[in-house]
Design a protein that fits this description.
This protein is α/β, with parallel strands linked by helices. About 35% of the residues lie in helices and about 15% in strands. The protein has 12 helices and 8 strands. It has helices spanning about 45-55, 75, 85-90, 95-100, 125-135, 155-160, 175-190, 205, 215-220, 235-240, 250-265, 280-285; strands spanning about 30-35, 60-65, 100-105, 110-115, 140-145, 165-170, 195-200, 225-230. An 8-stranded mixed β-sheet has the order 3-4-2-5-1-6-7-8, sandwiched between helices. β3 and β4 (about 110-115) form a beta hairpin.
């Protein structure tokens, strides 16, 4: 827990939260784009679990797969068998927006707008994506856009209508370099300050100085920290099963996503306290092994 942090408005697991930034939501829901620059850092998994956590907090949530041609969000959410229409179908007028949305039957008010598997990123222009997201904002409290890797057209599409950008990174030098590049582009081109989610954080490796600490990461990227997700095999297992781990409130790693969701809703929730080392390891060190 960070020194000086307090919890404002503690919630029971089933309590509904009211977003604190009401002015930004006066004309519709918030569009949050999750990006990184580098592939493989967990953007899609973070999008699925954060969308699930927000919906479980009583919000109407639409998660959008903006990775045209390489869609994966439907698989991670376990909704691939129910996809009929996709984002490109909506833009090209083959279906209505409501026909394209896939409801998640496990959580009320959680919907997926899938991407196309057969088209490429040139099928959608940034202005079309902005128009689509503006329409989504009128029917949702939160629109979460899963950005493709890289900083080319797919990235430009994903950030076109963003109310806020969330950078997802892992504590690796290559991931941090790409994240820093994205932060620079956002500040230069959009005058946008992003917030950070550190994924796959392993406190044991940090203690051994084999992984950068959160303080090291924040000193490099110089942006606000939204949350930390620990390195946990349960995330991979749940993603492979199409069952977001945020659905399992009792699991330790699930709490990380729910805490991030609560911060987005305006609550001052402390960072999770990560156990640095196991008791067997502490004992081995005490006896000099």
């Amino acid at each position: 827990m960070q020194t000086g942090e307090t919890v404002r408005g503690e919630l029971s697991p089933d309590a509904h939260a009211t977003p604190g930034n009401s002015d930004a939501r006066a004309d519709g829901g918030l569009v949050l784009t999750l990006t990184s620059g580098k592939g493989g850092v967990g953007k899609t998994t973070t999008t699925a679990n954060l969308g699930t956590a927000l919906a479980m907090a009583g919000q109407r949530v639409i998660v959008v797969d903006a990775d045209i041609g390489l869609r994966n969000l439907d698989i991670v959410m376990g909704l691939e068998s129910r996809v009929v229409y996709n984002l490109v179908d909506v833009i090209e007028g083959r279906c209505s927006l409501h026909e394209s949305l896939v409801p998640d039957k496990r959580v009320d008010e959680l919907y997926l707008l899938p991407s196309s598997q057969t088209r490429d990123k040139t099928a959608v222009a940034p202005d079309q994506m902005m128009t689509l997201c503006q329409e989504l904002r009128t029917i949702a409290d939160f629109v979460l856009v899963d950005s493709p890797a890289g900083i080319e057209l797919g990235f430009q599409n994903a950030i076109a209508a963003a109310s806020e950008v969330i950078i997802v990174t892992t504590p690796e030098v290559s991931a941090l370099r790409d994240a820093d590049k994205v932060i620079y582009l956002l500040e230069r081109d959009l005058n946008t300050q992003a917030r950070l989610v550190i994924n796959r954080y392993n406190p044991r490796l940090v203690r051994r100085k084999e992984m950068m600490s959160r303080h090291d990461i924040l000193s490099i990227l110089s942006i606000d920290l939204l949350g930390i997700v620990p390195d946990d095999d349960q995330i991979t297992v749940s993603s492979n099963k199409g069952w977001p781990v945020a659905l399992e409130r009792k699991k330790y790693v699930s709490r990380a996503y729910h805490n991030i969701a609560q911060r987005l809703l305006g609550y001052n929730v402390p960072l999770m306290h990560f156990p640095e080392v196991s008791w067997p390891e502490r004992l081995r060190r005490l006896i000099g092994l």
